[in-house]
Amino acid sequence: MKPKTDFQKLRQRITEQERRTLESWPSVSLGAPALDHKLPGGGLAAGTLHEFLPATPGDLAALAGFSLGVLAQLLRVQTGFVLLALPGFHAFREGAFYPVGLTALGCDPDRLVQLRAPKGENVLWAMEEGLENPALAAVVGVLPNNDRAYDFTASRRLAMRAAASGVTALLIRSQRTPGNATAAQTRWRIAAAPSEEQPWAGGRMPGLGAPQWQVQLTKSKNGALGEWRVRWDDETFSFRLAAVLADRAASRAPAQPAVAVSRTPRGWAAAS
Fold first, then answer.
1. Superfamily of domain 16-192 in the CATH hierarchy
2. Helix residue spans in the chain (DSSP H)
3. Residue pLDDT, tens place only, 95-121
């Protein structure tokens, strides 16, 4: 029998590692069955690497919000802290994470450890080190725009360490397109979507409702792809499919005729 070559041994080792990754760590429900059913195991796989990309340059804030919603689902079923690795200039350009806003998305700020790094390669190094720490439940990294430190080798290192420890890696990328093949289990493309209209004066009007996203699953190992309009449910702290209206304008209340008000002090008092 011909002995196996080094390449064949390496391929067998990678295949066995991927099989153990899917079998060893649980899957986490995102709350929306339509999303969970597309993912192997009925939910987002823990102990592996997931990527999140913006649909346009202006969707980076929406992307961060969706990623934190995913993180909230992980924290509901896993104990431990979260390492958040950010570029040093991220707060200046994109804004800092607000503790009250994190709480609204179901993320306990007391469980987050924030680290600032000067370059993308430092963010990746911090993620690798964090993935070996048993006190962590997840590691979240934000890469700078047009960063070249992240490639297949870097993604493979993250995926292998996550598989060995069970710590989940969430990577937020600024590029709209991945540009290269990676070892991520899933890849999500996120765009901001308008909030649902809010009840007002017997009708409905546009307003600041629950956050909504246009979510596209563009890569899923051993799973299916799809696209959904998703909203955040403040009561369950999870994702739900958004109600799609065929004609949003038809749901608005008809315009009320303006009431003439005298601009005298007596007229203002009567109007108020």
1. P-loop containing nucleotide triphosphate hydrolases (3.40.50.300)
2. 6-24, 33-36, 60-77, 90-94, 99-104, 120-130, 152-165, 265-271
3. 677 788 888 888 889 999 999 988 899
